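Might you be able to review the protein record set out just below?
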Amino acid sequence: MTGSSDWRPTASRQMLRLRGALLARARGFFAHRGVLEVDTPIVVNAPVTDVHIHTARVMLEPASPGGATRQPFFLHTSPEYAMKRLLAAGAGDIYQICHVVRALERGRLHNAEFTLIEWYRLGFSLDALMSEVESLVRELLGATTASRAGVRVSYREAFLQALELDPFTAPLEQLVEHAHRAGFEGTADRDELLELLMGAVVGPRLGQGTLTFVHGYPASQAALARLDPHDPRAAQRFELYCDGIELANGFYELASAREQRNRFERDVAERRRLGLPDATLDERLLAALDAGLPDCCGVALGFDRTLMLAAGAERIDAVLPFPIERA
């Protein structure tokens, strides 16, 4: 009978103490730098359009007596949209530690509900933000990072090192061949193949004994990042890997409402092509960008994965008090 045997948390008291200690370190880190802690809603009016992220829909009220359903709401997959509205309103440097929810995500490194540390720095370059991310991760992981070098490689270099192919120029047939070697048997477009190869082959080799930042992702994977003015094929975006685990995803934030709307609309068209649920655009975010987003960089760090590394845990369940099956 459900509830009779799975009521206990999966995380030990020792793990709970470590979790609390690391959260306190994170807050101290930002307080020392004068970054303001903020709080934004978990229940939001619009989902994300990204085809790789699945937003959970919630109904806060039952159907009306006449049979018409109320407006659906959504659980945020990141506090990014609301935090950018705060930035446009003049909040300055801000951070947030919050739970987020992403549907259809479960595995050794995934739980549907997890904790993000997300922050934005005005006037920072992408290099400066990578340095700050490295400082925070070293603060959280403590002595375990003492012997780890900080390494920065381009997305192109990472693919050349792991697969001896250039992700920007390799023929589609070559990407398909490598995907098949990795166990993929279906059909996919260029971006899907690159994502698969990064997740299955390239990424797991990164950050072995180091803290490795990968930057210069393809422009088609820019999401909410600016494109590189020196190479329009690449986005001003980075990810951090440690022991093959992706910990952080950062952007030099796109400030153009027009360009962001165009990207959202392309996402919506792609969702329809793939048969995914439709997604309405977040007009409040677009209005904030139109009002003026300050020049800034932002990043989201997966706290639970970082805690896994600090504790030497193999699965995310070990550091979560209540994984989704016991929620």
Remarks:
- The mean pLDDT is 94.
- The two ends are 15 Å apart (CA to CA).
